[in-house]
Amino acid sequence: MRPLLVLTAALLTAASAAAQAEYMMYGGTPSTTDWEIRRTFDVDGDQLFLTPGERIAFAADGATQVTFVNDLRYEELQGVPSVFGAGGDDVILRLVDLDGDGVASGPTEVLVFADTRASFGVANTSPDGVDFSPNTLALYVTDDIWAGTPQLGNGISIYRDMNNDGDALDGGEFFQFVNGQGTITVQGSGGPVVIDSGDFEAVMVDSNEVAVAWAQQDLVLYAFADFNGDRDAMDAGEAWNFLNLVGDKPGLDLNADVAAGALPNPSCPSTGGAGLFADLGAISVDHGTGPGGLDVYWIASMASNSSCASGAGFVYRGVDLNQDGDLNDAGEVKLWLDGANNAFMLYPVTSIYDAYSHNGGVSILQGNGPQGTQYIQDSVYFLRDLNGDGDAEDFDEQVLRYAWDPDGAFTVSLAVVPAGAFNEPSVPSFTIFGTPGSTSIGGQPRIGYNGLPGLGQSFDVTLTGALPGRTVISIFGASNTQWNRPPLFNLPLDLTFFGMPGNTLYVSVNQQVFTRGDTQGNASATWSVPNDPNLDGRHIYFQWYVTDPFINPRGAVTSDALDGVIH
Asked: Count of alpha carbons within 13 Å of 245, Cβ hemisphere only?
């Protein structure tokens, strides 16, 4: 059994965005209240978030208010960087960092921006998709069918902070843009077609103030615009077939390339009976980044590879090349990635949970990744076109940027945040330094760690390369510059005088833990940090003393060392 020791405050007081964006993700551990909006940040400058310490819980409250947060979006309102999402109790949350510590915590930083129930005076709603207008910064919110038939509030609503008080809770700050209880027709190949107007799962708003929403019942992306200025899109000609990749809705034109077999149809037979199943609820738009300043639309299939293999893993890129207001013409939609069958991804796509475009490509949050202790670690890939062939299918065009560590989780949504929008938080860290000695069997004892020195947290200091079954000592030091034994020694200290040539002491010996190496020469000691804010920012140091009666007069060698920073 590994010893558990506490690093006491008395001992510790002896020591004196180029390019890529960051991510916000909502997820957590099933059957627990361990759910959070997690933030990534790049500590080592590699534009990845795979190094320990490059993520933190940006907002977490035991799944009280920050719970099942759908469709996260970043926007700066009134000069305040903010993250928005549809959360528990059917409200739109606004998360801000007012004190500059890099996280959103407490009632002043986890805010209700809009209340969809109160807006309609009903006891239940079901907000799903959110997106901001690039022109007015109005927030478009979809509300899907939750009771079998359209209810008051279903459809698409618009929320806008008119009085600059930080929310859209006041009178006149919301209106219903698409009424799910109303009737809307769009022009089809043979005449008008009545469409589903109440079960929208996602929305994106383009530069022309056109809201494009995924209709889960019809399996079509519809477009909506207010052409007559009456604040809704319920009038004739204000809705149309924007993109039909599936062809399950009778009377509507199918995308020309899907119809010709040149583009895969992201669907499979419905398990519920007649018709097809598809889920294109991961959508976003890059404003003005296409040819001639046109918008670029991104659509990802959220179908699961286990239940709908023929429709899973597809990511599409669309541009309205003939500027007729839709993406149904030949050549306007390209397959960006066939993620389930890509030959170069370390973790091929199983299910896409969310996607968002940035930096000329798109990031996907998906259900495959490294194996955690209990669950698969959901991962984020950035998909880019390096060779200019119009897709991200080729070698090195799929970049693994993050995996939900330390264990897997159930993830829901992804937001892309400009690097530097929020301050970099202070996080615990470890750095290995120094040079180990050599044992009599030719190995080198190496120090390592599991966990990080967070306030109130425990971590393991590990050892490899010791002699099997021999005594080893885990040393904790409050300094890496002096050790007042007495006498006073300056560090690092060459241990030749101590009968250990070729070995160096790097840390003061303030506390020791005796244990034994296992049959492989591995060992571990568990330490914990008191939850004392006075320790924040303190450095702590560790090294192993490894007995080896055959190596030198002293009968021991030392490992390399560990420098920890408490936060």
From this structure: 30
**pLDDT tens readout for residues 484-517:** 888 999 999 999 999 999 999 999 999 999 999 9
* Listed residue (132, 279, 146, 276) closest to 211, CA to CA: 132
What residues form DSSP beta bridges with 512? 475
pLDDT tens for each residue of 116-145 = 999 999 999 999 999 999 999 999 999 987
End-to-end CA distance of the chain: 27
- Whether 85 and 77 have beta carbons less than 8 Å apart is answered as no
Q: In this model, does residue 15 exceed pLDDT 60? A: no
Q: Is the pLDDT of residue 278 over 50?
A: yes
Strands 185-188 and 410-417: unpaired
- Whether the per-residue pLDDT at 33 is higher than 90: the answer is no
Q: Which of 171, 192, 162 is nearest to 115 (CA)?
A: 171
Tell me if 248 sits within 8 A of 255, measured CB to CB.
no
Question: If you average pLDDT over every residue of the chain, what do you get?
Answer: 92
pLDDT reading at 6 higher than 60: no
**Distance (Å, whole) CA 368 – CA 347:** 6
Cα 153 vs. chain centroid, distance in angstroms?
Answer: 30
Is the model's pLDDT at 156 over the cut of 60? yes
Distance CA 273, CA 217 (A): 14
- With vertex at residue 174, the alpha carbon angle to CA 353 and CA 279, rounded to the nearest 5 degrees, is 20
Structural contact between residues 461 and 475, judged by C-beta atoms closer than 8 angstroms:
no
Q: In one letter, which amino acid is 528?
A: S
How would you list the strands of the sheet with 361-366, edge to edge?
352-358, 361-366, 379-383, 398-403
What backbone phi and psi angles, to 5 degrees, belong to 380?
Answer: -120, 125
Which residues does 370 contact at the CB level (< 8 Å), separation at least 6?
A: 347, 376, 377, 379, 403, 405
φ, ψ of residue 504 in degrees (nearest 5): -135, 135
- Lowest mean pLDDT across 41-50, 116-125, 232-241: 41-50
Which tokens belong to 105?
Answer: 């915590």
CA angle at 477 for the pair 476 and 483, rounded to the nearest 5°? 140
Distances (CA, A) of 473 to 319, 445, 510, 519, 543: 64, 12, 12, 16, 8
What integer pLDDT is reported at residue 4 of this predicted model? 42
* Mean per-residue pLDDT, 271-299: 95
DSSP letter string over 427-440?
--EEEEES-----T
List Cα–Cα distances, 153 to 123, 144, 173, 196, 438, in angstroms: 11, 9, 15, 14, 71
- Taken in order of first residue, the domains within the chain and their CATH numbers are 20-417 (2.120.10.30), 429-565 (2.20.130.20)
- Distance CA(279)–CA(217), nearest Å, equals 10
